Amino acid sequence: MSTGFDWAPFLDVGVGVGVFLIGLGVFIAMMSLARTLRRVNGTLDVVDEQIGALGKPVSQTLSHVGGIADTADQTIARLSGVVASLEQVASSLAHTAKLAQEAVSPAIVNAGAAIGGISAGLRRLIRGNGSKGTEENA
C-alpha cells in the first residue's frame, strides 16, 4: 500500500537550494574578504612608499653615525698611544730621579764627611796640637 506521493523530487530540490545558498554565502564572504584585502593592499602600498621615503635619510643618518663612531675609534686609538708614551716618559723620569738620588746621596754624605773633617781640622788648628788640658784653651 503506497500512498502514491513521492517526496524524492522535493528532497532533491531542497538539497539543491541548500547547496546554492551555502555557495552564495561563501561567495558573499569571499567578496567581503577581497574588499578587505584590497584595502589592506592599498594601506601597505602607502606604508611601502613612506618606508621608501624614510630609507634614504635613515641610511644617511646611519652612515653619519658610523663615521662618528669611526672617528671616535681613531681618537681613542691615538689617545691610547699618547697614554702609552706618557707612561714611558713617567717611567723614564722615575728611573732618572732614582739614578740621580743614587748619584747625589753618596756625594752629599762625602761632602758632609769632608765638612766634618775640615771643621775638626780647624778646631785642632785653633786649639793647638790636640792637647785638651792646656790653659790657653780655657
Overview of the molecule:
With 138 residues, the chain is mostly helical. It has 1 helix and no strands. It has one helix at residues 8-127. The longest helix is centred in the middle third of the chain and has 120 residues, at 8-127. The protein starts with 7 loop residues before the first helix and ends in an 11-residue tail after the last helix. The model has no long low-confidence stretch (mean pLDDT 84).
Total helical elements: 1
The separation of the N and C termini measures 179 Å
Instruction: Spell the H/E element sequence.
Output: H
Low-pLDDT windows of residues: none
The average pLDDT value, as a whole number, equals: 84
Helix/strand/pairing class, anyone? mainly alpha
Helix percent reads: over 70%
Strand-residue proportion: under 5%
- The rough form would be described as rod-shaped
The major sheet is characterized as: none
Strand segment count:
0
User: What value does the Rg take, in angstroms?
Assistant: 56 Å
